[in-house]
# Entry
Amino acid sequence: MSTSSPYIGRFAPSPTGPLHFGSLVAALASFLDAKAHRGQWLVRMEDLDPAREPEGAADDILTALEQLGLEWDGAVLYQSQRLEQYAHTLQLLEEKGLIYPCACSRAQIKEMGGIYDNRCRNGAKTHGPYAKRMKVTAQTIAFTDRVQGPQSQNLIQECGDFVLVRKDGLFAYQLAVVADDAFQGITDIVRGIDLLDSTARQIYMQEQLGFSRPQYAHIPVAVNELGQKLSKQHFAKALTLSRPQELLYAAMQFLGLTPEPDLLKGSVADTLQWGVEHWDIQKVPKLANIQLDKQFL
# Structure
């Protein structure tokens, strides 16, 4: 728990499809951690890529959260309404000389071994559309994850300069998430381990902008029988919300809790109250992924 200011956590789904079990686990973990610390739990809709967002998906996610009893504090923040703020954040970094254009293709980056070698950093000519990258240093970013333990990453060796504006002109995830976490005063972030690799980049950007650093906790992601993370791309099944207690019960078990069977006969509110009272983030499995039963796939 952060001691410098009251706890503010968040759940930030991308509205690419309906809520599935993997999303529920992330939402529930962040909700329980916030409420166990008597903090706020905010919801942010990461809707920056219209081509991937079916109409009504954001509303469907919010409706599902309501049916599951996961009530958020304050208004929902929509990234699509914050483009001016992202442009301002980018300008601050440009004024520090940290941004440059890059026209390299995905194929070229793949040839580099997936780690960008910063070849456009020194004013290489760019033809056609280009991305905007942020310069990194050779420093090692270290932090202690509340679930996974000590972490470190040398940005030059393990990442390279990273994209803040895509070639299609859309703001990239890394820029938006750092700007929004600062804007909302987020103190604690509980999310899937698939985002652990992004954390050092976000901490580095926070440092360059003078933002405070949240505490991080990365939980295992739910995977199918092929080891694939549940997602729209891998045909994750939408939650069946007729029995929300059963979904919450199963999600708590996924997170290492041992809910009482009688909870299945009670209300959603009773189930969540039990979860808040018994929440212990140290019980969350220190794993990268957990395979789900077929009923949730």
Summary: The two ends are 33 Å apart (CA to CA). The mean pLDDT is 91.
